[in-house]
Amino acid sequence: MAKTQQPPPRKTVKARGALPAPRVAPSRDTTPWHAKTGPRVVMALVALALLAFIVKAVMDARDRADERRADVRSVEQFERKVADLNTKVESVYQGLAEIPGAYLAGEVSQEEYVTQAEGWVTSFRELNDGIRNSAVSPDLEVLMDAKALYVQATTLYLDAAKVFLQAAAIPDAAEKEKATVLGRNLFLHGASVYNMGDREMARLKNDFEINDPPLDIPAADLPLEEVQLPEPPPAPPAPTDVVPGTDLEPGADVDTAPEAPAPAGPEAPAPAP
């Protein structure tokens, strides 16, 4: 069977001046940007970070408020503790102001004075131990400073009481008075240090707004005036260099002193030739 011969394909002939076929533009994505996956993930992360920051800020503020309340309680508890301890020694302060002087004047017996002085030592030791053992937060530096000043002041009170007690065992009246004056000066110095502790407490209470209205804090107090002993009597005049009525120096031996020349008399007659 003979094959059928296919006619060759006809070439497309473009007409002169014909326009090209129009190109179809790709379709545009009309989805809003905030509805897309990428931006939504970013916004979610930002929101989480902002929420975490707000929560942390609130927690930090709450922690600071709790710490401040704890500090205020610590200050108030320490102040009440010191006040209670001082209430127990009010009579001691009054006795220190009256009894040593009365003892030196002979108005208080030896036995009564010793009993009072022993009580002062016991009371001030309890006061010092009570303040020293009071719990104070180490984060409150001003409160720690006030406590240190109170401890130092009550230590001086205790030393003063011991000196008053030792004065009773001194037999010499002048030395007894010196010891009593020393004890009083120690006590006055302790009172000045104690006032410095009160100033630190007042400043701390103002900072925590415990004082309403705030207290005026005066300048640092000068040390209280100390008792001075009377001036000693003037020394006797120094001895002269020559014993009156003689040419001898003080302490010279009379036997070794040079002999005085013999008085002049009539001359002896000359021998006859």
Give structural notes:
The protein has 273 residues and is mainly alpha-helical. The chain contains five helices and no strands. Helix content is 55%, strand content 0%. Helix 4 (141-167) runs antiparallel to helix 5 (173-207). Residues 227-233 and 263-273 have low confidence and may be disordered.
Question: pLDDT average, as an integer?
Answer: 77
Instruction: Give the fraction of residues assigned to helices.
Output: 55-70%
Largest sheet, in brief, is: none
CATH topology of the domain at 77-207: Four Helix Bundle (Hemerythrin (Met), subunit A)
Low-confidence stretches: 227-233, 263-273
Order of helices and strands: HHHHH
**Separate helix tally:** 5
User: What best-fitting shape do the alpha-carbon axes yield?
Assistant: rod-shaped
Q: Could you name the CATH class of the domain at 77-207?
A: Mainly Alpha
* Radius of gyration using CA atoms only: 53 Å
How many runs of DSSP E, i.e. beta strands?
Answer: 0
Q: Separation of termini?
A: 227 Å
Strand content: under 5%
Structural class: mainly alpha
Proper CATH architecture of the domain at 77-207: Up-down Bundle
Concise account of the structure shown:
By secondary structure, the chain is an all-alpha fold.
SSE layout and pairings?
Elements: H1 37-87, H2 90-104, H3 110-132, H4 141-167, H5 173-207
Q: Which descriptors apply to this entry?
A:
273 residues, mainly alpha, Four Helix Bundle (Hemerythrin (Met), subunit A), 5 helices, 55% helix, 0% strand, disordered C terminus
